[in-house]
Structures are given as structure tokens and as C-alpha cells.
Write a structure and sequence with these properties.
Layout: H1 4-17, H2 23-34, E1 53-54, E2 60-64, H3 72-75, H4 83-94, E3 115-119, H5 132-148, E4 154-158, H6 160-172, E5 189-192, E6 195-200, H7 205-208, H8 215-230
Parallel strand pairs: 2-3, 2-4, 4-6
Antiparallel strand pairs: 1-3, 5-6
Helix pairs in contact: 1-5, 4-8, 5-6
């Protein structure tokens, strides 16, 4: 029988998937679905806002920027179906947080343990750059997820946009955010309310192809996250 947390997350997922508050993002996600690259022709795209995914009892929450136009916007699950997801879930699998190192589609059998993956913005944005107003309209969904995920203790922000968006969400939840605002760097660590926030370079190809983010660096972030929740 589903728990109360599972029921609340399921209801929130329905609300997220039905959202149409940002006309520019609605148009872009649908345009991407209507004109896919050759390798994805024939796919039936999700082409809606993408809900979070993972363990309702998660103590580790990973926050990304937004869905990829031909990754999560296609598959309907965060970091699924693109190279960013290959890096993220391989690292989570190595840390014992994911049942497998790959994430290809919503029916591939992937399960998360003690972890939940979400984003600041739920629709694929042009050039991966949501407008501030679009971010602000979407932030209440992250607020609500964090309220429902009441066991969460570590928040991993993938990139500066996710870091800053998560800080805004925490302030919206009534937690005191230090001033000046904690600055994003890879490996940054700050305590806010019941949470420890960890900074990690985003798993985008721009970072992984250039070596700005290595597998060892990503593994170290998740090792630290697991160490915090285990008390070691």
C-alpha cells in the first residue's frame, strides 16, 4: 500500500506534468518534440514538465537545472536518455544509490535507494537558460518536494543555477540562508536548517567532455553525501 509520502509525491507529479505556466517553455518543449534529431525520430516524446524521481524516503536529494530537450523532455524522467544521465546515474550506482548505472527510459528498471533526483525548472528551456521569471514560477514545486521529502538531509546542487535555485527554495521554506549568499563552487559545503548543501559541477557534456568534471570528482561528491547521512 502506498505511504502518505508516496501519495503526496504522486499528486505533485501529476500537477507538475500538467503545468503550462510558462508559454515560452511550453512552445520550446513541444518544438523539440516535433523536430527531433534523426536518432530520435519515431520516438513519442514526453514533451511535458518532468516530475522528480526516486525514493520517497530519500535522505539525499540531487537538484539539476532543467530537463534536456532530447533527454528528459523525451523520456519523462530526470537525467534519462542523455549523456548527462549516463554520468550521474553511473556515479550514483557506484555510491549504492541506484540499482543500475544506466538510465535510458522510464521502463528500464532503474530504482533509486535513499536518493531523489529533481530540478529547479521542470521544462526544457531554449539553450538550457530559463528566464528568472520562469525559475520563480517553477520553484514552488521544489519547495513542496522538500516539504514532502521530510527525511532529506543532503542537497546536491548540480551547477550554479541549481545551487542558487535551491537556496531560494530553502529561503522560501523559512530556513535562514547565510548572508552573503553562499557562493557556488565544486565541493562547496554549507549547512542550512536541517540540510547540508553540496556543490557539484553539472554533469553536462560541456563539463565532462572538457575534463572540468571528472568521474573521480563526481564520485567524491556522492561519497561525501553518503558519509554525511551515515554519520561518518
Amino acid at each position: 500500500m502506498p505511504t502518505d509520502t508516496q501519495k503526496e509525491l504522486a499528486l505533485l507529479a501529476e500537477e507538475v506534468a500538467a503545468c503550462a505556466l510558462c508559454p515560452r517553455l511550453v512552445a520550446w518543449r513541444e518544438e523539440a518534440a516535433a523536430n527531433p534529431p534523426r536518432r530520435y525520430r519515431g520516438w513519442r516524446y514526453w514533451a511535458r514538465p518532468v516530475p522528480g524521481f526516486g525514493d520517497p524516503r530519500a535522505r539525499i536529494v540531487v537538484v539539476g537545472l532543467a530537463p534536456g530537450a532530447h533527454g528528459a523532455n523525451r523520456t519523462g524522467r530526470p537525467f534519462t536518455g542523455d549523456r548527462s544521465g549516463q554520468w550521474l546515474y553511473a556515479a550514483m550506482h557506484s555510491a549504492g544509490l541506484a540499482s543500475q548505472p544506466t538510465s535510458t527510459d522510464r521502463d528500464d528498471g532503474l530504482r533509486l535507494r535513499d536518493a531523489y533526483v529533481t530540478a529547479v525548472v521542470r521544462c526544457a528551456p531554449p539553450a538550457n537558460r530559463p528566464a528568472p521569471a520562469e525559475r520563480d514560477r517553477c520553484l514552488p514545486y521544489l519547495d513542496r518536494e522538500l516539504r514532502v521529502l521530510d527525511r532529506a538531509r543532503v542537497l546536491v546542487g548540480l551547477g550554479a543555477f541549481a545551487w542558487d535555485g535551491t537556496l531560494l527554495a530553502l529561503r522560501g521554506l523559512g530556513h535562514e540562508v547565510p548572508r552573503p549568499k553562499p557562493r557556488f563552487t565544486h565541493g562547496a559545503e554549507v549547512e542550512i536548517g536541517p540540510y547540508v548543501m553540496l556543490g557539484c559541477y553539472h554533469v553536462s557534456q560541456q563539463n565532462t567532455f572538457t575534463g572540468k568534471l571528472t568521474r573521480e570528482m563526481l564520485d567524491a561528491v556522492f561519497a561525501r553525501a553518503c558519509g554525511i547521512v551515515s554519520g561518518s
